[in-house]
Specification:
The protein has 165 residues and is mostly helical. The chain has helices spanning 2-6, 10-16, 22-50, 59-71, 89-111, 119-130, 137-145, 152-162. The two termini are 23 Å apart.
């Protein structure tokens, strides 16, 4: 996610691509992220309820209610069974977005807005990525930043980019 969302960073766009109006593009990326965070949050709530009910057919209106409330658009009621991922996969996305936002904030705090151009930041990332998926994101984050995983960091990231335009 860190590399994926790097293309939404105004500093990276301006420095690496000589991109016109990087703040506008970053705000569009933030709106996209916000949509998916709201969607996956609603999906997680739905899946938790779905897996604890005895009457699966009663979940169709609940699916529409939760996703409509989160997205302000109504999903197709026919998707109430199809839109369930195995193993609460929605929570993995939410955790990865939070991890990315907090790691990115840490890198900016330690190395500046152009952290992606700093050799020390690159060395840190090579070291972290060298571990693969051996440790949970919470452990990496605690070791690197001293922080715990917080979804609020995604909201802060979105607010920052939306405030630029």
């Amino acid at each position: 996610m860190l590399v994926q969302h790097l293309t939404d960073d105004p500093a990276w766009l301006a420095r690496r691509l000589d991109f016109p109006r990087p703040a506008e593009f970053a705000s569009e990326g933030a709106a996209h992220l916000l949509f998916f965070v709201r969607r996956y949050s609603a999906k997680l709530l739905y899946e938790l309820e779905f897996h604890s009910t005895d009457d699966i057919s009663a979940m169709q209106p609940r699916y529409v209610e939760l996703l409509s409330d989160a997205l302000k658009i109504e999903p197709s009621p026919t998707d109430y069974l199809n839109d369930i991922d195995g193993g609460f996969y929605a929570s993995s996305y939410l955790r990865s977005w939070a991890f990315e936002a907090q790691l990115r904030a840490h890198l900016r705090g330690e190395f500046g807005n152009a952290w992606f151009a700093r050799r020390a930041a690159g060395s840190l990332l090579v070291e972290l990525w060298g571990e693969g998926q051996r440790w949970p994101a919470e452990d990496f984050l605690r070791d690197v930043t001293g922080s715990t995983l917080e979804l609020e960091s995604v909201a802060e990231r979105v607010r920052e980019h939306l405030a630029l335009v």
